[in-house]
């Protein structure tokens, strides 16, 4: 009996040692510095949510500055990570794949999305007050979405990628519908939600197919497993690749999955529309970049041509629809920016598509760098354009001017944004240079950057970089389509720019200074030909937003190499 007992005892000891070893392997340290940018944004979201419970209504404005400060700290947390590739949440066995990687690509996108969220927060401080949005909910949702946007570029497995993308999207649905009592806002939020949920379901189905074919969720393991997948699973794998790309294309607002964009932007508060046009779009494009060049390089022959066609279709649909906007149409300014953002998404897709050609999927840094350079330019000037739209809207509808003492005058008890339309028409910008010369000059500069015309030379160089990526990949036909679309875009950008400097026609003030020309007492305000009431003073955060984006656009135009160097940087 002694031998069996001894053998059993030794087996138990070996099993215990093996279990202890496994437990030690499962324990891993977390690199808190690497995850600081998204973690800080999430932490401040919770802080704002709790603070909202204890702050009196008259002090709720402090939440906006707390959120803005949190986003600034999250952005500053990127600085210690520059120059060092760091990773965490890694497998302790096998190939040691990591779920979170802080490489140059990650840090660049985090800078872009956190910077965009910071500018959105500045833009929102006045909007939350003027539009009577629930402060606690607004700032919590904005910070939550920003934390997801900062997490997404660092994700290196499909599960984290999908979760991060949904953390970006789910708060955005609520942000779009926060304007209580305005039917268009609720309708836009519902359309956005239903269409986005459908796209997410398609994407999850594709991810499940890819997992079934490769047996892994990590992007590096998927890239290794797809070429060697069982021949009986090739159709399943290809279907999974296509469905996954469809989901991310929807999030990026690429045609034909763009139908939610114009209605959502019109129904959302202006700062939320600005946020979606930059941070939301970049999040979708980031996911698209990661799954194509990091997970599916072996399917470059499939996604390369597909994205090239998608890019051509997206820029054509967006620019032609923007061209159709009429100056007097309701919400025509926001709709033009919405359709313009669809067209810009087409340009951003061009280098990603080129990465799938001529073996460039093996070294996609140059092509993806062109997308990042263009995205940085687009983010700055598009946020600036939305800031000017917010400024024109915040100045109020009919008769919203300042009297000699600087006090606001206008219709008694009127809410400057109560009609949901004032400041959203292109006609509201007619003659803006006479009322607000600096604001008009800033808007003209932003539009010229988007058009790619001097003095907005950063827009020109960014377009040349994207154009070069297409030519280098042998996509001559796509370069021609892009050139045609750039010419189309010139028409509506220059048409809007001309409105800024065109006289107000019948002597009526622009939407920034007046509308129905009635004072607080209901009596007409004197505004005959050649005279213009003094415009209302803009809130400091709104002025700071326009000044900040204008300064960044000027610096980028004066030293375009600051952005264009990403086209020559090793990103992965």
Question: How does this structure look, described?
Answer:
The structure is a single chain. The chain is an all-alpha fold and 572 residues long. The strands form two sheets. It has a two-stranded antiparallel sheet. Strands 3-4 form a two-stranded antiparallel ribbon. Residues 1-25, 396-419 and 506-532 have low confidence and may be disordered. α14 (365-394) packs antiparallel against α19 and α16 (437-451) runs antiparallel to α18 (476-501). It contains 20 helices and four strands. Helix content is 65%, strand content 2%.
What is shown here, in short?
The protein is an all-alpha fold and 572 residues long. It has 20 helices and 4 strands.
Outline the secondary-structure elements:
Layout: H1 2-26, H2 36-54, H3 61-76, E1 86-90, E2 98-102, H4 104-130, H5 135-151, H6 158-176, H7 183-214, H8 219-225, H9 234-251, H10 261-267, H11 270-295, H12 300-323, H13 332-354, H14 365-394, E3 401-402, E4 408-409, H15 432-435, H16 437-451, H17 457-472, H18 476-501, H19 540-558, H20 561-564
Antiparallel strand pairs: 1-2, 3-4
Helix pairs in contact: 2-3, 2-5, 3-4, 3-5, 4-5, 4-11, 4-14, 4-19, 5-6, 6-7, 6-11, 7-9, 7-10, 8-11, 9-11, 10-11, 10-13, 11-13, 11-14, 12-13, 12-18, 13-14, 13-17, 13-18, 14-16, 14-17, 14-19, 16-17, 16-18, 16-19, 17-18
